[in-house]
Automatic annotation (TrEMBL):
The keyword Transmembrane helix applies. Keywords: Membrane, Metal-binding, Transmembrane, Transmembrane helix, Zinc, Zinc-finger. It comes from the Eukaryota. It is found in: Membrane. This is RING-type domain-containing protein. It comes from Colobus angolensis palliatus. PANTHER family: E3 UBIQUITIN LIGASE RNF121 (PTHR13407:SF1), RNF121 PROTEIN (PTHR13407). Gene3D superfamilies: Zinc/RING finger domain, C3HC4 (zinc finger). Its main location: membrane. Residues 194-244 form the RING-type domain. The chain crosses the membrane at residues 21-40, 72-90, 110-136, 143-160, 270-292. SMART domains: RING (SM00184).
Length: 295
């Protein structure tokens, strides 16, 4: 080990200027890429979201096959198959009445599983760092691998699920007619219809429902509680599906036990950049270094 370390130092001795140049290239590429991505997202959000979703879906598949992570590949295939079916249902016209709830139930299930998996993975990593794995006679490397694997599964499928859910939510709401991504809705919304699923609302806001409650936003539009929660948390929307007034998530999730779901969703939105674009940027930096003859 020491011999290899010495060889590495000997190989790179006198290359300080080259290494500094490589660091500058990395920083400059990161800054320029971030500016371009922000402009792309602001000016052409639909194409940005589609390309980002495609990259998050495909890039890990390349590393999975290359590194022989067969367990991940099996889970990826199962998730992709069911999600493809749900997405197909969500993009059909006319939209079947039961489809919106089917879509939100599937993505809410994945969201909860990813949330629980991420929490367990994080706890496993923390237990290993504090040496608590020794109480169960588990090797540190095995415990750390277990924790990091669960953490990766939870965060990756959490990010992927939210982007697919957002796309399906846009398609369904636009098909129903009470929502338009740009411009005015094609239908007038009455107080007895939920704009998310297009179905009748039978429970008054002031009443306690047997199956589910009805929720009124600050803009006075009412929805099935399950639908509006799916729209905001699973579908990543923070505006009213009809008038696009901003939704107060703190008011909607007044229960302190539900607040972490909002924070977890924000974390996933931040991680999607790392999952989708970071490998591309690093590959671009390596290409620039190769062209310039830097090692």
């Amino acid at each position: 080990m020491r011999v290899e370390h010495a060889r590495m130092h000997a190989k790179h001795r006198g290359h300080e200027a080259m290494h500094a140049e490589m660091v500058l290239i990395l920083i400059a590429t990161l800054v320029v890429a971030q500016l371009l991505l922000v402009q792309w997202k602001q000016r052409h959000p639909r194409s940005y979201n589609m390309v980002t979703l495609f990259q998050m879906w495909v890039v890990p598949l390349y590393f999975t096959v290359k590194l022989h992570w067969w367990r991940f590949l099996v889970i990826w295939i199962l998730f992709s198959a069911v999600t493809a079916f749900v997405t197909f249902r969500a993009t059909r016209k006319p939209l079947v009445q039961t489809t919106p709830r089917l879509v939100y139930k599937w993505f809410l299930l994945i969201y909860k599983i990813s949330y629980a998996t991420g929490i367990v993975g994080y706890m496993a990593v923390m237990f290993t760092l504090f040496g608590l794995n020794l109480l169960f006679k588990i090797k540190p490397e095995d415990a750390m691998d277990f924790g990091i694997s669960l953490l990766f599964y939870g965060l990756y499928y959490g990010v992927l699920e939210r982007d697919f859910a957002e796309m399906c939510a846009d398609y369904m709401a636009s098909t129903i007619g009470f929502y338009s991504e740009s411009g005015m809705p094609t239908k007038h919304l009455s107080d007895s219809v939920c704009a998310v699923c297009g179905q009748q609302i039978f429970v008054d806001v002031s009443e306690e429902g047997i199956i589910e409650n009805t929720y009124r936003l600050s803009c006075n539009h009412v929805f099935h509680e399950f639908c509006i929660r799916g729209w905001c948390i699973v579908g990543k929307k923070q505006t009213c599906p009809y008038c696009k007034e901003k939704v107060d998530l703190k008011r909607m999730f007044s229960n302190p036990w539900e607040r972490p779901h909002v924070m977890y969703g924000q974390l996933l939105d931040w991680l999607r950049y790392l999952v989708a674009w970071q490998p591309v940027i690093i590959g671009l930096v390596q290409g620039i270094n190769y062209i310039l003859g830097l090692e």
